[in-house]
Amino acid sequence: MSTLFTTIQLLVFPGLLYAFMAGFFMEWVQRKINARLQGRIGPPFYQPFFDFVKLLGKKPIERPPLQGFIMTALPAVSVVATLGAVAILPVLSADIGFPGDVILLVSLIEIGPLLAVLGGFASRSLWGGLGATREAVMTAAYNLPFLTALIALAWNSDLSISLLATTAPWHVRLLAMAAILLCLPAKLHLNPFSISSAEQEIYAGMTTEYDGPRLALWELAHALEWVALTGLFALLSVPLVGAADIWRVLVFIGVSLAVVVLLSVVAASTARLKLAQTARWFWLWGLLLAASALGLSLAGI
Amino acid sequence: MSIFKSLMNTARRKSPWVFHANAGSCNGCDIEFLTCLTPRYDAEQLGIHHEGSPRHADIIVVSGPVTRTTCEALETVYGQVPDPKVVVALGSCPATCNVFAGSPTIVGPLDRVLPVDVYVPGCPPRPDAIIAGLAEAAAILAGDKPRPIHGAADRASSASDGQEA
Amino acid sequence: MNILNLAVANLFHRRTTQRFPNREAPAAAFRGQVAMDADLCVTCGICAQVCVSDAIQVVPSEGSGTWTYDPGACTFCGSCLAHCPVDALTQATDRGPAYGLSGDQAVTIVVEYPACRECGRPATPFSESLLRQALPGAAEELRERARLCGDCRQRASVRAMKKAFGGPDSTERQDDGR
Q1: Which of B94, B163, C15, C42 is least buried, going by the fewest C-beta atoms within 10 A?
Q2: Distance CA A294, CA A292 (A)
Q3: Residue B130: which residues within 8 A CB-CB, separation 6 or more?
Q4: Model confidence over A78-96: pLDDT tens digits?
Q5: Distance CA A261, CA A181 (A)
Q6: Contact criterion met (CB < 8 Å) for A203 and B52
Q7: Read out DSSP for B116-152?
Q8: Residue B156: pLDDT above 60?
Q9: Which residue on chain B is closest to A50 by alpha carbon?
Q10: What is the pLDDT of residue B157?
Q11: B48, A35 in Cβ contact below 8 A?
Q12: Mutation test of the interface with chain A: which of C2, C13, C15, C16, choosing the one with the most A Cβ atoms within 10 A?
């Protein structure tokens, strides 16, 4: 029974099926809100799905064997890693969590940007290298407050996600969640921290040389990142101890969507910050929030 | 596997990604193309996405009579767009060179360099005419409309369109 | 926070986006595709001469004149309209649809030359407006003369001159077979 339940969680919710559907849906919500706030209509709801299918149907450009293999493997591994991150989110019950799973989750989430940087360089394109460099600097910038906030939350627990939300006191959680929320636009390449995927400025950044199915995998990885990150935020911010499964699911989905809407509104209303400004923003304000959370947590207040 | 083929055709019709190349245009057509992305005309309602990289695009929109200096770059960019692809000639310059016909620095109308599938008339065309032309290009990609016969520049890719699943 | 005001206003205002394929009609003064009225044209060729992009060609031949226009080459400047002496050209309020083959939308109009009243050969088409512009107080006789072919008109003018100067037997025609 437990194995069947776990399998259903891995395949349906919050695993494979939910991840794909929610990923496309969240991407559509972001594009639609962006359009509506700009006074436009925006794409219809099936747009990200058809984008993905169309990309799969393009004839791939011939590449030298090793480069072609790397250029296909990098986005594929990124998709698998982010899918794994979504699948191990403990939404339904505590069965699927285990002590230390926050480390696994964070490492799976971090694989995405790392592989994107490698992918930019592997494509041997000037624009890919530019985008990859910017993404690398941004990763160094936002990971500092992100990981510090997670450490602050995890200090008094045994590194299990389901316990993270409940054991930390509310003021630590508030500060840490604020720091994590600050890092989300950078992880998702949204304004004001979208410097690494600056459209037209560096052509298409890291994915400039990718086409067809390879690009489809990158887009899918990006959509899955939406699900994983907003889902993590939802789990850590709302503690649901002993609540019925249906409430856990509804709150999880609801808070995820609320975060998507908030991030989209911020993205539509802000301009892009430069790389130095981005780094300064995270190492000053992000670190301030996360460090105060960590300080409070260490002091045991 | 006809359900996959019709799914792929629908996807191609609903998601035309565009790359814009300027082959010596006076920028009038380029400005009108950019206007397609503004709230009044909103090309995104058809799924049209202006891409930064030719490798991401399905439709390559060319404006301007092809000048000698841009000819080679245009051919390179055309080669970078993956199949299936459609070429749209924007305005009257790529169609007939307009006022520049006979100039020694002009290679010629676009169909001397690339196989053109859709001509959007105008000098410059109105943005809603450009969007209608892009919708026509998306229909060609989806197989709703046949590609016009190009003669010597007919590409093998037009034969392989129907077999992509 | 001006941008937030703008964004919220966009959210609640009626959208002005044109939903494809509906489009607002262009303004009445919009310069679109050129159309020619075959009843007015006199195949003078001035439009072809002033056309900046050689979109109009006028080729006169034995019994007719051919007017061709390729909207794919047109720059919609309106020069041809402005210079046409008989106002045979108008511009539509639209520019034509997207097409697939170059030259597909070219328009060819053949203006038939009417027969001369005297000799029956083809004569340049008569234009009432041209006559009024050139000779505002034209007598009935001039209007008749304008409907003749070039040679017959020349002979009629010579006859009229002879009659005016009162020459001998000025109403006789030359019988040298012309």
Answers
A1: B163
A2: 5
A3: B32, B33, B36, B90, B120
A4: 999 999 999 888 887 656 6
A5: 13
A6: yes
A7: --EEE-SSSPPHHHHHHHHHHHHHHHHTSSPPPP-GG
A8: no
A9: B11
A10: 40
A11: no
A12: C15
Instruction: List the 16-55 stretch of C: residues with Cβ below 8 A of B.
Output: 16-21, 23-24, 26, 33, 52-55
The token duo for B39 is 């709230």
Chain B neighbours (≥3 Cβ pairs under 8 A) are: A, C
A237-276 residues touching C, CB cutoff 8 A: 265, 268-270
| CA-closest candidate to residue A143, choices A286, A10, A245 | A286
ipTM of the complex in this document = 0.87
**In angstroms, rounded to a whole number, what is the distance separating the alpha carbons of residues A106 and A108?**
5
pLDDT of residue C96: 79
CB-nearest to C74 from B92, B97, B116 is B92
Asked whether the beta carbons of residue A36 and residue C11 sit closer than 8 angstroms, the reply is yes
pLDDT band at A301 (very low <50, low <70, confident <90, very high): low
Whether domain B17-144 has CATH 3.90.660.20: no
Domains along the sequence of chain C with CATH: 27-112 (3.30.70.3270), 114-171 (no CATH)
Per residue in B70-119, pLDDT tens?
A: 999 999 999 999 989 999 999 999 999 989 988 999 998 999 999 999 99
How far, in Å, are A299, C145, C154, C173, C177 from residue C161 at the CA level? 122, 13, 11, 13, 21
Is C10 in the A-facing interface, judged by CB distances under 8 Å?
A: yes
Do β-strands C64-69 and B66-67 pair in parallel, antiparallel, or remain unpaired? Answer: unpaired
Q: How far is Cα A81 from Cα A19, in angstroms, rounded to an integer?
A: 12
Testing the interface with B: which of C13, C14, C74 to mutate, by most B Cβ within 10 A? C74
Q: Are C138 and C132 in contact (CB under 8 A)?
A: yes
- Give residue C176's pLDDT band: very low, low, confident or very high (50, 70, 90): low
Angle separating helix axes A212-237 and A47-56, nearest 10 degrees: 140
CB C96 within 8 A of CB C88: no
Q: Rounded to whole angstroms, how far apart are CA atoms B75 and B79?
A: 6
pLDDT category at C18 given cuts 50, 70, 90 is confident
Residue A93: what pLDDT? 66
For chain A, which residues make up each domain, given as ranges? 2-299
The C-alpha of B164 sits at a distance from chain A's nearest C-alpha, in angstroms, of: 6
pLDDT tens digit sequence for A193-202: 988 887 777 8
